[in-house]
Amino acid sequence: MPVAKPESSDSRVIAHVDMDCFYVQVEQRKQPQLRGLPTAVVQYNEWKGGALIAVSYEARKFGVKRSMRGEEAKEVCPQVQLVQVPVARGKADLSGYRNAGSEVVSILARRGRCERASIDEVYLDLTDAAEMMLADNPPQGMETIDEEALKSHILGLNNEDGSDVKENVRKWIHRHNADHRDKLLACGILIVAELRMQVLKETEFTCSAGIAHNKMLAKLASGMNKPAQQTVVPFSSVKGLLDTLPIRKMKQLGGKLGISLQMDMGVNTVGDLLQFPEEKLQERYGINTGTWLWNIARGISGEEVEGRLLPKSHGSGKTFPGPRALKTVPAVQHWLNQLCEELSERLCSDLDQNKRIAHTLTLHARAYKSSYTDSQKKFPSKSCPLRYGTAKIQEDAFNLFQAGLREYIGFYGGKTQGSHCSGWGITSLSVSASKIVPIPSGTCSIAKYFQGQSTSHFSSMQSSDNLNTEATLSLPSGSECYSEVNLSEPKIDFPKEESWIKDTVPDLDLQEQKDLSSTLSEKTQDGFIQEDISPLLLSGCLEQNRSKQQQDLTKDESQFKSEYKERKGKRLKDKGTYSIIELFKSYNPNPSGSFLSHEYNRTVGGTDASSSSYSRDEEEGRREAWGYNIDEIDSSVMEELPTEIQDEIKSWMQPHKRRPNNMVQRSCTISHYFSPSKKS
Ligand code: DCP
């Protein structure tokens, strides 16, 4: 049965903004002498001049394409300027591009809800801004229309009679008899043109945009006229656009589903889908996909623009094509360590700057097997709860790899000789962190942090320990290489692993596929199937800046104080949650009945085995009393605290309320505030 059309979405104003030849523009901003010249950005790998990953529009005119290598590009365009991607840790360093993308996002977000869709793409919901413009200063009454807006391409606008194109656009925008939807789009045209000009002014980057009533149509439109132009899809032109659009050009139809539609149903254009009743599509592809196909054939998409300026996940990856495939476990471990180091750094800066934490670590690999019947088998992706700290991430990623490898090679696979393994090779490796959520501010974050650390840290560590110590990788006799390797490497406990390591089904959209390409750039993976969400496992991030975080929990007061002072000096830029976490993590003020225990018991009921082990382990090293020097309170942590505590601390700051040695009375400490008696 056909679903009701989401009519309301027809009157939204959605824009999709896509940077033009983005990496090239970033490099040209760094080296302005390259502006206007045919330029391409190449992989740092110099084989045949490196693979091209971004090509300027000037170079495209000469036939330079992304699929080429540097040498081929030189053949078709001898004057092409090849710029190498920056390198760090032996792999492409994309941080400059990511930061440039963030600059753009911060500008685009000024006029409406903004969703960062990839390193260089953004969706905007400009409905409110358009409605407001329509109410206050409608375009129909404007005397002058901005030149950039007049350069818009409006689908369905007849420009073939030789009339002035800009004049036609002006008339379209000025129409008094237009319906509400077109009037809103007219506002969208002006707003997006203004935003794009602002991006150019502030960042020197050009971008292109699509403006329509939903995300799907806006995305389709943004690529239609590039570079530095915008395309508009009025409601009346939707059918014309989709009727002839090749089915594989549609987002999410570039893969197997698109092929099936072509081969099995004879659908070549989106318009061809119109002939099928919804039931038929549901019968063939399932309820949801069937309905989705029925909707897209009519240009219907209710997908919301998510308010998200930050990436959904962080990833670090590298490809090892052809002869560079990794064929030994130590080689894989070496590269995994590099990737994990980068991932860990990004997680820490996300925590520091955005107060966000990731919950899931996932390992993806591509591999080949040369001599076995099931050589088509894919290397399984694996995921587990994410523990912060480079060493922990490295350890966990390596365990995930080993689990994946065992599954991949099967019981009889992976014959190894000396330091060389035969039979398999790894052609790409990536690690990613997903399920990233903000840390709730204030009390909640503090309590949750400790609660998470106490529960999942221990359960996860147990699993991990088991992984490391209890079992060996089962391999046939004669697998010397593996045996050798395993002597010094974590071993795998498969029964335990079942509950810890999960198979991961990546749900990559087209953008993600793009991002997974040659440089394995900013991979926005999400949609991993991973039900088992671990609470916060943050400890290691702080370890990035100082190494002994676990021991801190059992340090005595004087050690704590001197170390805290030292850290505070080093940690000038730490703010908010980060600081307060560090402060509290370093020393738990509550010997018993503390806010931690209280929160913990309240939340998990004290029935979990890890609860008691937490209490025992943690409290053994804890002292009865706690005091701290109020001068040591970093002012940046103040805003993290509930107002009541802020007031209390401020009052201590007043000289007449200070005790002679500046030590806060025990009864006035934050621990007291959080203690059960105070709460009740
Ligand atoms: N990228 C990459 N590897 C790929 C594809 C893209 O590293 N296989 C990087 C380089 C691009 C950036 O991502 O500059 C954005 O990719 P786009 O597909 O949006 O392409 P461009 O921005 O380069 O060009 P266009 O103007 O066609 O969007």
Automatic annotation (TrEMBL):
This is DNA polymerase eta. One of its GO terms (biological process) is response to UV. Gene3D superfamilies: 3.30.70.270, 3.40.1170.60, 5' to 3' exonuclease, C-terminal subdomain, DNA polymerase, Y-family, little finger domain. GO terms for cellular component: nucleus; replication fork; site of double-strand break. Keywords: DNA damage, DNA repair, Magnesium, Metal-binding, Nucleotidyltransferase, Nucleus, Transferase. It is an enzyme of class 2 (transferase). Residues 547-568, 606-627, 651-680 are annotated as: Disordered. It catalyses: DNA(n) + a 2'-deoxyribonucleoside 5'-triphosphate = DNA(n+1) + diphosphate. Residues 14-254 form the UmuC domain. The keyword Transferase applies. The keyword Magnesium applies. It holds the Pfam family IMS_C. Belongs to the DNA polymerase type-Y family. PROSITE patterns: UMUC. Residues 553-566, 615-625 have a biased composition (Basic and acidic residues). Residues 662-674 have a biased composition (Polar residues). It is found in: Nucleus. Its cofactor is Mg(2+); Mn(2+). SUPFAM superfamilies: DNA/RNA polymerases, Lesion bypass DNA polymerase (Y-family), little finger domain. It comes from the Eukaryota. Its EC number is 2.7.7.7. GO terms for molecular function: damaged DNA binding; DNA-directed DNA polymerase activity; metal ion binding.
